[in-house]
Amino acid sequence: MELKDKVVLVTGASAGIGLATARRLAQAGAKVALAARSTDKLTQLAEELRRDGHAALVVATDMRNQSEVAQLVETTVEHYGQLDVLINNAGQAVAGTVAEVDLDQFRQVIELNVFGPIYAIQASVPKMRAHGGGIIINVSSMVSKMHLPGLGGYAATKAALNMLSDTARGELAPDNIRVMTVYPRMTATDFGRNSLGNRPMREQQRGNAAPGMVIDSPEYVAEKILEAIQKEPAEQFMDA
């Protein structure tokens, strides 16, 4: 898909990969809708994009709240007239061994990392169908392909997202809705600092990349997300 004048909804757009992605897609000609809980950060980003001549809409949203997510999609379509690309990027990690992970925190992460994307997909698909198709990108993690001590809970949520993507890809193909999964590696953001769970384990995970794991910039991941939109592979991995 070429992005000129296409409408793209980016969740988790207030920081990290989401912020870098919103900037990059706006530079590529997209009209962006920015979703996150941090209204101030979204507003700052939107003002920056508008100064550069790009269209930007701010919709403060808790992606764990189904009604707020439905309103996010509705507001985006009311404002721009359509929705071409949904990028499910909002997410959070939880640190802790399988035997000891805090279950309440694990439920919070499941709500955000698994149910949040489902809420957005279910709200977006009717809009995309009415417009003749679209693209859904689910931002997963290479952690979902690994077995890292202390990150089993987070990896499980991303593995669930992978399976949802794989299944939805076939289900939505007749509607010309293409579903892709992007797999970032360790990225230089505040993601680890904002994770839930065991503090010493969070510190350890922030300070030590897994063997062979490269630390990418959020801008690099954003470029890969743009590439996925343009080339439409089923899965987009970072280059080795």
Model description:
With 240 residues, this protein is α/β, with parallel strands linked by helices. It is built from seven helices and nine strands; from the N terminus they run E-H-E-H-E-H-E-E-H-E-H-E-E-H-H-E. The chain has one domain: Rossmann fold, CATH 3.40.50. The protein is 47% helix and 17% strand. The two termini are 25 Å apart. The chain is globular and about 50 Å long. The strands form two sheets. The chain has a seven-stranded parallel β-sheet with strand order 3-2-1-4-6-7-9, sandwiched between helices.
Roughly what percent helix? 40-55%
Rg over CA atoms, rounded to whole Å, is: 17 Å
The CATH architecture can be given as 3-Layer(aba) Sandwich
**Unreliable runs:** none
Give the CATH topology. Rossmann fold
Give the helices and strands as they follow along the chain: EHEHEHEEHEHEEHHE
Strand-residue proportion: 15-25%
How would you classify the helix and strand content by structural class?
alpha/beta
Q: Name the average pLDDT.
A: 94
The largest beta-sheet arranges its strands as 3-2-1-4-6-7-9
